[in-house]
Amino acid sequence: MDQMEIRKLGNDKEIPYDLLFLADPSMKIISDYIYRGDCYAAYISNNIVGAYVVVRTRPLTLELVNIAVKEAYQGKGIGKKLILNAIDIARGDNIKALEIGTGNSSINQLALYQKCGFRIVGIDRDFFKKHYKEKIMENGIECIDMIRLRLDL
Fold first, then answer.
1. pTM to 2 decimals?
2. Which of 68, 92, 96, 126 is least surrounded by CB atoms within 10 angstroms?
3. What is the CATH number of the domain that holds 127?
4. Interval 59-87: pLDDT, tens
5. Looking at the 3D structure of the chain, how many domains does it have?
6. Which residues, including other chains, have CB under 8 Å from residue 65's CB and lie 6 or more apart?
């Protein structure tokens, strides 16, 4: 695989909404956190292959609210590199905690986040039933609850 570069996107025209939809099916929710946060994209040969969005939620705390990798590039370590980049960005800004939430049905993501050092700190019961109109199915499991994880930096 060619060299990958991760860079912060500067304006709305650069935001890869089609890619962010892979991780979040709600344009309303994506638009909200894009407005409040920063979007970073991974490029290989000048093509976007992955992206993530971070939002400041509390003093000295960031939340990683979306991580997406194009399907053709999944399973190649790009998601992990995006997470590690977010950790580096947070540490560089003297952030003390990086948080992330994922669906109870997101088995692969839950494993990845824990491999990157995140620990489960709670569950938002019925989060996806309350905030999404359409039922979300993943790995043959209905996505109902948000599993909350945190990495203390």
1. 0.90
2. 92
3. 3.40.630.30
4. 999 999 999 999 999 999 999 999 999 99
5. 1
6. 33, 37, 53, 54, 55, 100, 101
